[in-house]
Each structure stands twice: as structure tokens, then as C-alpha cells.
Design a protein that fits this description.
- The chain has 240 residues and is mostly helical.
- It has one domain.
- Helix 1 runs antiparallel to helix 2, helix 2 crosses helix 3 and helix 5 packs across helix 8.
- The longest helix is centred in the middle third of the chain and has 21 residues.
Length: 240
């Protein structure tokens, strides 16, 4: 029986460890491929297949923390987590709205038809909290632009948003909690509890306990077991 971290990739564990480092430090795919000696397509497959593991409780310190990076708080859960994620996803997929703001065509980040306003129908969140949600949505775009991943056409839209959201919040939480080098980048030697290095070591221990198998590679357009039954209505070109 093989003990490799990702048996189907035919890659040495040292290469997979380098990929995990790129996963938590948000390195571009081409750079990860260069560092691991694997092609970019294989690196992309493994990286994307790691994201569902972030739903596991061992990652809650990064994906459901207290503080400014948390959207998975008690208020959101009480409002209905499924509807909450769907609403955030609808905002995320409105690329025209984000583009108009980025080009200076609109002064406010939120548009008149912003779906996030529906989350504050009772006035419990407030404008500052809604703006923070929009900021986090923009951070997801920033992270995936930096990695170099665009469309994931075989994935259900809300599932895709949920996984991108979890990944972004986890890696940014790690960065926020890490000691920085003189150049402002993460000091990967910092092993404090919520650091990027600790997230890396948690992922590594996870793979040592249960290597990544082919069954975990997302295939086909279907609802995942961790996705809820409420679908996000988005235009097809929004996923391209």
C-alpha cells in the first residue's frame, strides 16, 4: 500500500509539500508548477481538490474565526446558512456590478439592486457589515486572479462560491495571523497557532492521515454532498 500524500499524481511527497505551501501562500499556478516539477494542470487539479477538506472541523479556526475576516458568525447561521451563501454568491457572480465600480462608473461599491441588502432587511447588520461582505467578495476575486484560476465549468455555482470563499478566508486568516518578514511577506518559519505555517501543517497532517484519492477530484456537474438544495441563478457567462 502506498503512503504517498497524493497517490494518483505520481508525485513525490516533497513536491506535494511544496504545492501545499503554494496553496496557503497564494502562489500563482505557474510558480507552483516550477517549484514542484509538475505541470500546471496537475497542480491545478490537486489544489482545487484540496478545498473541500476545508469544510472539516479541524480547519474551523481559519474558516470560521472571530474577527474581521469572519462571515460565518452566529447571525449568519441564525439567518439560514444556505440562503446566506446563496445571497453572497449572487453578488459574487455579478461581474458587471464589480467592473462598473472598479472603473469608477459608480461611487458606492454596492449597487441599487445589490442582493446583499436582502440580508439586512431588519437592519441588524448595518451598512458597515454589508460593505465588509462586499470587500470579502472582492478578495475572493483577487486571490483567484493571483493564483491564475478562472472558470470551473463543471461545478455548481453555489458550490464553487462556497469553496472559493472558504479557501480565501482560510489563507487570508493565516496571512493575517503570521509574523511578517522585512519585505512584508509571510515569515513561513512562524508556527503560531493560526499562522500560514500552521495551516500548511494541518493540511499536511490531513493528507498523511488520509491521502488525496481520485474520488475527491471533482467530476461532472452535480450537487455535491456538502452543497445545499437551493440553487443560485447565474448567467452561464459569469462562470467563464
Amino acid at each position: 500500500m502506498t503512503s504517498r500524500l497524493v497517490p494518483f499524481a505520481r508525485a513525490e511527497d516533497s513536491a506535494i509539500q511544496e504545492l501545499l505551501k503554494g496553496f496557503v501562500l497564494v502562489h500563482p499556478l505557474e510558480y507552483i508548477a516550477e517549484q514542484t516539477g509538475m505541470n500546471a494542470r496537475t497542480c491545478r487539479t490537486i489544489l482545487l481538490s484540496l478545498r473541500p477538506r476545508l469544510l472539516r472541523p479541524r480547519y474551523y479556526p481559519w474558516t470560521r474565526p472571530d474577527g474581521t475576516l469572519a462571515l460565518w458568525d452566529d447571525r449568519a447561521i441564525e439567518a439560514g446558512l444556505r440562503g446566506f451563501v446563496s445571497t453572497l454568491a449572487n453578488c459574487y457572480y455579478d461581474r458587471a456590478c464589480q467592473s462598473n465600480y472598479a472603473q469608477g462608473l459608480r461611487e458606492e461599491r454596492g449597487c441599487r439592486a445589490c442582493p446583499l441588502d436582502a440580508l439586512d432587511s431588519e437592519g441588524d447588520f448595518g451598512a458597515e457589515y454589508l460593505d465588509a461582505m462586499r470587500h470579502h467578495i472582492d478578495l475572493i476575486r483577487f486571490v483567484y486572479d493571483r493564483i491564475g484560476i478562472k472558470g470551473e465549468r463543471q461545478m455548481h455555482p453555489r458550490t464553487l462560491f462556497q469553496l472559493r470563499y472558504l479557501h480565501t478566508m482560510a489563507v487570508l486568516r493565516g496571512r493575517e495571523e503570521s509574523r511578517k518578514r522585512a519585505d512584508g511577506d509571510v515569515d513561513f518559519r512562524d508556527r503560531s497557532p493560526l499562522s500560514s505555517r500552521s495551516l500548511y501543517e494541518t493540511l499536511l497532517a490531513d493528507l498523511r492521515d488520509a491521502p488525496l484519492e481520485k474520488q475527491e477530484v471533482y467530476r461532472g456537474e452535480r450537487e455535491n454532498e456538502y452543497d445545499a438544495d437551493e440553487r443560485v441563478r447565474v448567467r452561464r457567462h459569469a462562470l467563464l
